[in-house]
């Protein structure tokens, strides 16, 4: 087991390593993006099954842009730039690198727990209230 700098303990430490070393980092990052989109869609449609596809997509796009703009700050707060492993030619504190690793951690949590909901819950403890407010629409 390995504890990350927030309230989650990985059962499979290899998944955490993959999130910050670049091995499967991109795939885990994509998984996280889809996890958040799916969670938002489920919550919004559970509240309003008649929501138009256009409105649903607009909320998802708005939330996605919010996540992109803040994942570098969130990743920096967690100190990911200090543990990310990249080639010598790559700056581990570059925004795209930090954001990718930040997202990949939550993809790794989803796999570690075999639960998309678990990844979303941990994500919301870090990323927070902005998404919760938007999903409460």
UniProtKB/TrEMBL annotation:
GO biological process: regulation of gene expression; RNA processing
InterPro entries: RNase_III_sf (IPR036389)
The UniProt record lists the keyword RNA-binding: yes
Matches recorded under SUPFAM superfamilies: RNase III domain-like
Cellular-component GO terms for this entry: nucleus
Keywords: RNA-binding
Gene Ontology MF term list: double-stranded RNA binding; ribonuclease III activity
Keyword RNA-binding on entry: yes
Top-level taxon in the UniProt lineage: Eukaryota
Protein name (database record): Protein NUCLEAR FUSION DEFECTIVE 2
Source species: Capsicum baccatum (Peruvian pepper)
Highest classification ranks of the organism: Eukaryota, Viridiplantae, Streptophyta, Embryophyta, Tracheophyta
